[in-house]
Design a protein that fits this description.
- It is built from one helix and five strands; from the N terminus they run βββββα.
- With 94 residues, the chain is of the alpha+beta class.
- The chain has one domain.
- The strands form two sheets. The protein has a three-stranded antiparallel beta sheet with strand order 1-2-3, with no helix packed on it.
């Protein structure tokens, strides 16, 4: 896991810096988002501050797989693909 982000550059534990276009973090079955606490990207219950998957606190940050993100199926294999496509289109417009 990287130790810092500065614009489009991440710093790895050994101090190496690398420019990146995208950071994709997969947390598993239950959201494990505590690493976003310090950013202010989470609400009091530890869930993302978002609207339809787009962060309401950090432009360019998006989420998929959340319950009722956009529909009943958002947190399922059946729905996450539609939400990911929607989110990608919105992020690319940025």
């Amino acid at each position: 896991m990287f130790t810092a982000i500065d614009g489009d550059t991440v710093t790895w534990p050994d101090g190496t810096r690398e420019r990146v276009d995208t950071i994709l973090l997969a947390t598993g079955f239950r959201p494990g988002l505590s690493y976003l606490d310090k950013l202010g990207a989470l609400g009091p219950a530890g869930m993302p501050k978002q609207h339809r998957g787009l962060s309401t606190t950090h432009p360019g940050l998006g989420f998929v797989g959340l319950e009722w993100q956009r529909s009943f199926s958002s947190a399922t294999i059946r729905g996450v693909g539609r939400d990911a496509a929607y989110l990608a289109r919105r992020l690319l417009r940025r």
